[in-house]
Amino acid sequence: MMQLSVRLVPVGETTLVVALTGELDSTTRPVLAAFLDPLPQSLVKYVVIAAADLWFCDLNGLEQLAATHRAMQARGGHLAVAEAKPPLRRLISLMAEQAQPAIPVYATMPEALADTDVDVYEVSKPPVPVPRHMPRLRNVRTAPLSDSVRERLRQRRQQRPGPVVLPLSLVMDQSRHLREQTLRQRYTMTRQLMEAAESCLLLVSARERCAASLAALRNNRTTIQSAVRGPATGPATGSATGPATGPATRGAPIVAPAAPATAPESSADRHTTAVLGQGKRDADTRT
Asked: What are phi and psi of 235, to 5 degrees?
């Protein structure tokens, strides 16, 4: 998308030149409106649009110029377009045929400024290049070379080593060696990747076993805690094997519920069995 560049150049007390560069359409109209809308409230009466570098303009942009032209006419001034391209002049003429105030169009900038408060319009000339002082080279006289010096220079040129050309067989051997080295490195990398995958599988299996052991330990801890706490305090009404035949004595041991019999498969299970036995002995001691 082409942008619109706006440059304001005051050339008189009430005359302002607006130089436009780029494209004027519905997208860039707000950019131009930000500069032209405040002008009716200022001291400016004449606005000259320098359209030499305005490459494109549609109805949206032309409506903005027409609105500013009407506002300037209400103050006794006008808006003019100078150095417009043929498509823009054609569009302005078509709009003038409608019920719109015609926008003055001028071929050159001096003609456009002649209808304003500017008396003389001077075009600035390009700066004249200033000649620079260039250093001068002194004429250095060189003596002709002797035959002995020329012979030494020729011998030095002949002694310079030329480009080294390797035989084709050596080049083929080097290529074969590089290929074999590449294949070995590829095989080594493949083997390392396979070992890494096996290690990853072992780690996953170990993690699953650790999770199972942790769950078993938690279950055993719950069983131990229930065995250590024992039944509720109070006179016993019966024994573990049948109905009670009399009041229970204080020295009667309290039988804790036995844990399900499982074959010890690991050191964790053996440790759990030892803890259960210790819990039973502690319960008997408390009673």
From this structure: -65, 135
- Characterise 101 by phi-psi region: left (phi > 0), alpha (psi -120 to 50), beta (else): beta
Residue written as token pair 């049948």: 242
C-alpha 197/C-alpha 193 separation (Å) is: 6
Q: What percent of the chain has pLDDT over 70?
A: 68
Residues 4-113, CATH architecture: 2-Layer Sandwich (3.30)
- Separation of first and last alpha carbons in the chain: 94
pLDDT for the residue numbered 136: 61
- Mean pLDDT, to the nearest integer, of 87-102? 82
Domain ranges of the chain: 4-113, 177-228+266-287
44 near 68, Cβ under 8 Å?
A: no
CA distance 111 to 117: 12
Global pTM exceeds 0.90: no
Which residues neighbour 101 within 8 Å (Cβ) at sequence distance 6 or greater? 66, 69, 70, 73
- Residue 20 token pair: 């436009």
The Cα–Cα gap between 87 and 84 comes to 8
**Could you identify the residue written with the tokens 């004429």?**
139
Helix 59-74 and helix 29-36, axial crossing angle in degrees, nearest 10: 10
Could you tell me which residues are beta bridge partners of residue 78?
Answer: 46
- Per the DSSP assignment, residues forming a β-bridge with 238 are 243
Nearest residue to 6 (alpha-carbon basis) of 59, 90, 68 = 68
Pairwise pLDDT comparison (285 vs 185), residue with the higher score: 185
User: DSSP strand E in 69-222: where?
Assistant: 78-82, 105-106
Query: Rounded to an integer, what distance in angstroms lies between the CA atom of residue 121 and that of residue 144?
Result: 67
pLDDT at residue 80 greater than cutoff 70: yes
Residues 6+ apart with CB under 8 A from 54: 20, 21, 22, 23, 24, 84, 85, 88
Both tokens assigned to 224 = 């131990």
